[in-house]
Structure formats: structure tokens, C-alpha cells
């Protein structure tokens, strides 16, 4: 075999020579088959060359006639000069490709654009009169836009197919933008926006709502919160909250933090109950009333203030249309958690005089903030705000006892 490789083989056919394919013969029968293979391609290749040249001449004449019909002012004699090809350069023909597909009229414009045969003449052609010559087409442009999309900064581009709803969302939002633009133009021309139904509905729904006339109704609605939301996020103390409800009904002077907590619990419970029972409750009104009290106290630096921020977080998760930035609110909760030292276990420091009830509430609030941080960071694809190594991860041991429900 080594001797056969060293000797240059001159018996290869023109096709194998042109494609740089080495042919090795190990027997006399292989040489006889090779000799027969050499005699046949020489005749076939010559026929293919003549046929290809003849069809190319017909194609060029057909293209020139099309140009003369569409643009009579184009002078075809001013084309590029024809240079004779070098003898050393082989002419490569692809026998595997379908000849009818090569010479089909549907591919004429793509070949002209790719090879640049009519680059000097394309400036005078009227593209609008021939829509088939527009390149790239609308389909290719959309495929180019949707083919590879970076989902987040620094990530690899990924394919988004038709199932992602990109085209549908693009169509809907583009039409919505046009309608909103027309509405703004109409409002500017009339000088008022009083006829906008969206602003009217928002104004009516966000009107502050007072407490229910019956105290029992407020108690029942607050109990719905502790039966549903409190199970997942137990950062409030139910007996203390019911005492706040009694206080707000019994006296006219209550602290803004207490009134805010009562109204926010009603807003969250009303929103959840409306979604479950398909009954319209004034959750937006309770929320608007609570925000009036929120501006009267500072939520920083106290456990009650952090609980107020968590109530806003839960309401924003249940009502995305309220306009609260959840990521910024999560940052505020983490900052307050670190300021209060809730990430540390106070039981390791006996010198701190903290009651068991306060220790339990600190542990509950810590785990709720920790859960929100991990959940929001995962949903938004962002890094977590506080690492596990920076926290004393302890488990609440008295959550099942009645005084701490």
C-alpha cells in the first residue's frame, strides 16, 4: 500500500482529478474497472460542457430581452469587458445538482444579485414595477429579526419560534400604539382628555374607600387574608392585627402605621377574594386609602415599617397594574433587613434583652424577605441580594403555638 501511495496515479478520471480525489487500486480487476471508468467520463463531461454552454447562451439572451422590454433606455453594449479565463483554472460542474433547477427562471434575480452580473444596470431598473425583484423579502426580514434574539445581557442568542407569540405580540402592540397615538392627537386637537374611558375607569376604581360600616365585615375580610396569604407569608401577627381593627373602630386617633396595615390587609384580601369568587370588591379603593397613610410615616428603621413594605410587595404581586416597581421594593426590604440585623440569630447573643415573641417575629420577617428575594431574582433573571453565607439560617420553632399565629 505504501508503494501504491508513492507512485502518482495517472489513471484517475477527470472528475477525480478535478476534485482532488485519490484513487488506489489493489488488484488487476480494479485497474480494468478504472480504465473503463476513465473512458466514459471523458465523453460525458464533454457533452455536459457543451449542453451547459448552450443553455447559458439561451439564458443570457432571454435575460437581455427582459431588460430591453422593461428598460429600453439601457444600453447593453456598455457592459463589462469579457476576459478570457485562464487555462490553469478548471471549470467545475456539479453533476449532482438538477439542471432544470439551475436554469429555472425563478432564480434569475437572486443570481443577478449574488454574482453581480448586472450591478451597473440595476440602478436604472424600476424596482416598484417588479415586486418579485425586491430583495430581501418581507419573510426573510422577519426571519432575520426573530431568528437569533439575546434574551438577557451577556447570554447566548437563542431561537424564538412561532410558538413564542412574537409576531402576534408585535402586531397587537403596533396597532395599540397607533390607536393610542391617534387618541393623543385627538385629545390635543380638542384640548381635553375628558372623553378617555381608560382614565375615567382608573379614576373611579382608584377612589379611596372607607372601612365597611360593620366591624364584623372587616373582621371576616381580614380573616380571609390570614387563611390564604398568611399561610405562605406569615410575617404578621393575627391577634395583634385584630386588635388594630378594634382600635381603628373604637377611637378616632390611630397611628398611620396601624391604619396602613389594616387597609392593606383589606386590599390584599379583597383582591384575592374577588379573583376567587368572581365578585367585585373595592381592593383598589382600600389600597388608595392605605397609601394616604403611608406618606405620613417613615417605613425605615423599624420592624413595623418592614412589614408595611412586605404588604406592598404582596399587593404588587397580586395586582401588577398598581405601578409598583417590585425590584426596587425588594431592594428596600433587603436594606431594612440588614439595618435591623434580622439576618443574625439573636439567640447567640444572650446580652440582648429580646423577648421570645420579638425573636419569633424577627425570624418570620427574615424568612419572608429571604423568600421574596430568591423568588424575584429567579423570575427576573438577576442576582440574589443577600448570600446564604451572610445569614444565620434558623428555623422558627414556635410557629404552631396559638400565641404566635
UniProtKB/TrEMBL annotation:
Coiled coil: none annotated. It holds the Pfam family Fungal_trans. One of its GO terms (cellular component) is nucleus. Residues 326-402 form the Xylanolytic transcriptional activator regulatory domain. It is found in: Nucleus. One of its GO terms (molecular function) is DNA-binding transcription factor activity, RNA polymerase II-specific. Keywords: DNA-binding, Metal-binding, Nucleus, Transcription, Transcription regulation, Zinc. GO terms for biological process: DNA-templated transcription; positive regulation of transcription by RNA polymerase II. It comes from the Eukaryota. SMART domains: Fungal_trans. This is Xylanolytic transcriptional activator regulatory domain-containing protein. It comes from Aspergillus tanneri.
Amino acid at each position: 500500500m505504501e508503494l501504491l501511495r508513492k507512485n502518482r496515479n495517472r489513471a484517475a478520471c477527470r472528475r477525480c482529478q478535478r476534485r482532488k480525489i485519490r484513487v488506489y487500486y489493489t488488484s488487476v480487476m480494479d485497474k480494468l474497472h478504472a480504465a473503463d471508468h476513465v473512458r466514459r467520463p471523458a465523453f460525458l463531461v464533454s457533452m455536459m460542457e457543451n449542453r451547459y454552454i448552450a443553455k447559458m447562451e439561451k439564458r443570457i439572451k432571454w435575460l437581455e430581452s427582459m431588460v430591453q422590454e422593461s428598460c429600453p433606455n439601457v444600453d447593453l453594449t456598455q457592459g463589462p469587458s469579457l476576459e478570457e479565463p485562464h487555462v490553469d483554472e478548471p471549470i467545475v460542474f456539479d453533476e449532482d445538482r438538477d439542471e432544470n433547477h439551475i436554469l429555472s427562471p425563478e432564480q434569475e434575480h437572486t443570481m443577478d444579485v449574488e454574482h453581480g452580473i448586472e450591478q451597473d444596470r440595476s440602478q436604472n431598473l424600476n424596482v416598484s414595477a417588479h415586486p418579485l425583484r425586491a430583495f430581501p423579502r418581507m419573510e426573510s426580514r422577519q426571519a432575520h429579526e426573530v431568528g437569533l434574539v439575546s434574551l438577557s445581557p451577556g447570554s447566548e442568542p437563542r431561537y424564538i419560534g412561532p410558538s413564542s407569540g412574537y409576531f402576534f405580540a408585535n402586531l397587537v402592540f403596533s396597532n395599540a400604539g397607533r390607536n393610542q397615538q391617534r387618541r393623543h392627537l385627538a385629545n390635543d386637537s380638542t384640548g381635553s382628555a375628558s372623553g378617555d374611558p381608560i382614565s375615567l375607569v382608573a379614576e373611579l376604581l382608584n377612589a379611596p374607600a372607607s372601612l365597611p360600616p360593620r366591624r364584623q365585615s372587616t373582621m371576616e375580610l381580614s380573616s380571609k387574608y390570614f387563611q390564604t396569604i398568611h399561610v405562605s407569608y406569615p410575617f404578621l401577627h393575627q391577634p395583634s392585627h385584630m386588635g388594630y381593627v378594634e382600635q381603628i373602630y373604637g377611637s378616632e386617633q390611630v397611628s398611620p402605621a396601624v391604619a396602613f396595615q389594616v387597609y392593606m390587609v383589606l386590599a390584599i384580601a379583597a383582591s384575592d377574594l374577588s379573583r376567587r369568587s368572581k365578585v367585585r370588591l373595592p381592593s383598589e379603593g382600600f389600597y388608595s386609602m392605605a397609601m394616604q397613610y403611608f406618606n405620613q410615616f417613615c417605613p425605615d428603621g423599624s420592624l413595623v415599617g418592614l412589614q408595611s413594605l412586605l404588604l406592598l410587595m404582596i399587593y404588587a404581586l397580586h395586582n401588577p397594574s398598581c405601578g409598583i416597581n417590585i425590584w426596587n421594593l425588594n431592594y428596600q426590604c433587603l436594606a431594612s433587613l440588614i439595618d435591623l440585623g434580622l439576618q443574625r440569630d439573636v439567640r447567640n447573643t444572650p446580652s440582648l434583652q429580646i423577648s421570645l415573641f420579638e425573636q419569633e417575629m424577627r425570624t418570620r420577617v427574615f424568612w419572608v424577605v429571604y423568600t421574596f428575594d430568591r423568588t424575584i431574582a429567579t423570575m427576573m433573571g438577576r442576582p440574589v441580594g443577600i448570600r446564604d453565607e451572610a445569614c444565620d439560617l434558623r428555623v422558627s420553632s414556635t410557629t404552631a403555638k396559638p400565641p404566635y399565629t
